[in-house]
Amino acid sequence: MLALSEAGDNAGVDMLVGDIYGTxxxxxxxxxxxxxxxxxxxxxKSTTRSERAEMFKQADIARSLLYAISNNIGHVA
Amino acid sequence: MQDxxxxxxxxxxxxxxxxxxxxxxxxxxPPLPGGLLNFERFETSNIDGLIEFIxxxxxxSAKANRVSEDRMKSNVKIMATGGGAHMYYDRLxxxxxxxxxxxxxMECLILGLGFIAHVPEEVFWFSEELVYKVSHPHEPRxxxxxxxxxxxxxxxxxQVTFAPTPHxxxxxxxxxxxxxxxxxxxxxxxxxxxxxxxxxxxxTSLGGGTLWGLLSMLTDARTFDxxxxxx
Lengths: 77, 231
Fold this sequence. Notes:
The structure holds two protein chains of two kinds. In chain A, about 45% of the residues lie in helices and about 5% in strands. Chain A is mainly α. Chain A has one domain (about 1-75). A two-stranded antiparallel sheet of chain A has the order 1-2. By secondary structure, chain B is α+β, with helices and mostly antiparallel strands. Chain B has a domain at about 1-105. Chain B contains ten helices and five strands, in the order H-H-H-H-E-H-H-E-H-H-H-E-E-E-H. Chain B has helices at about 1-5, 15-20, 45-65, 70-75, 85, 90-95, 105-110, 115, 130-135, 210-220, and strands at about 75-80, 100, 180-185, 185-190, 200-205. In chain B, helix 3 packs across helix 4 (about 70-75). At the A-B interface, helix 2, strand 2, helix 3 and helix 4 of A face helix 5, strand 5 and helix 10 of B.
């Protein structure tokens, strides 16, 4: 599973600050690569579960989950 | 972006809010809904729908006021905030041909905090009472003794609440300094001082977007509210 996450890019499923603010991201004092919302790109209206499963790479999902869990631990510590 | 769209403030009445005495105001010719605040939601992917909606609003207002569409447009100002305000600024300006003003989301939130606190159930604090009220909607609002959590061995020594003050008995107003937890796709936690100065002190990427994303990947539900098309 860790190997899988190594091959992934979390930007495929995570909504990054840059996805929300475009190139203006630096204005608000956050890097454009900062994760704004884990899995924020996954929800799309009127797609079925199987369509969504094909739309996103397993490796990207693994990478995103790894970041989410590790960041959360770091955050509460 | 959803927030941004909502704050553009046009569309249908939201029942509970429009019936609030502070916010109710009768207004202009049909078919315009009238009132001070109207809410309409558009998903980011449906930005075209939003633009079409505003275009229609402008032309129906022009008709209702018996002025030309260009004249109407020169008087329309769109206030936009949130990420979408930056992402779609050019499109809004070009496609609608009206003035578009971008405001910083946090500034809007803090400036509007006093106002938002007047909107019923818009500002809340986490408490056992609140959890009970939501999970037992048809029962009395107080927790029966049998359901109270056991006292913790080390209870918190202080708490932050928007407590009613003598001159506004029953109303809740922010007590400064306070921490504002803004829950969107992600979550920002902002410390706000009495003079309106604020600082983003914390936040997390685990927010609304994560819930939507995980739910849509793990279940067959197709909309967040669970309308009829929920499988």
